Amino acid sequence: MYVVLKILIVDDSAAMRAIVRRGLEKFGYRTLQIELASGAKEAFEMIGKWQPDILLSDWHMPMMSGLELLQEINRRRLPIKVGFVTTENNQQLVGQAMAEGAKFILNKPFEDAALHKALLPLVQGAEESESMLNNQTGVDHGVALPNARQLQTVLQGMFSAEVTFTPVEPLAYSPELLPLLLALFEDPDTRKIRAVGILDLHGTYTLATAKCPSLLAEISGMLADKTVNKAMMDQCQEIMSSVAMTLLDKQTRKSLTLKNLSFVPKTFSKMEQIYAKPQHLRMDGLVHIKGLGQGRLSIVSTQVGRPARRQVS
User: Under CATH, which architecture does the 5-123 domain have?
Assistant: First the structure.
């Protein structure tokens, strides 16, 4: 489910505040609420009464610089993601800002596409997914994964075009596999994450355009930038919700549900572990839709502890 995202723009230039705002208003992934502040004092007043999710700040401002603003946010332990839109290009200062927790540094002048690309990882839930996976505890006694035919049947039911799902060998993890979409599937009773789904960019574009053909016109630009827009995420969320129904708890025989779908632009600590799961805990395949192309879809159990013993016949 997508919620309204609050973004606070901090810049002592009214013209630049307007430029950044116009760029944000063209961003299609989330519904945004945008407020403006002319400096740090006004920014903290807005933070106190409005509680933004993201703060986009200039660097060189009177009274308190953008870096000092970031440091004060850290000192107060405020749950705000900070990015910079600035002319500052001193690598030592930029490195300091990143070390202090800045999510990106975007240099002025900028194209709207560059702003959107920088903002995308902040709003698509990748950090939330990483946190959920890192907090996994306990022993999971297993999820019954679908076979290729079951998965193909579910996908075919969503599209008018012909769909095939062909099992393939798992890939070893490589940063070159990124970016991708990561789905977290949970037990609806315990809310425990039981499996993850991995959909590469080609699979994302193929499935989303099969569901909504009007998106075909947007693929070339997104492929060049390696991004996914809101409309595609919405289509893939619906698709992965249906895929969740094919995943069953081995004990209760209840279907899992989709907890979260994220755009993952860079690796995180659990990613290599997901790719390293043994073959009996995963289903990897190529989804091909006639006339549109194909992409890779993997469903991986998060089972920990020893796998159940197989009966010897």
Answer: 3-Layer(aba) Sandwich (3.40)
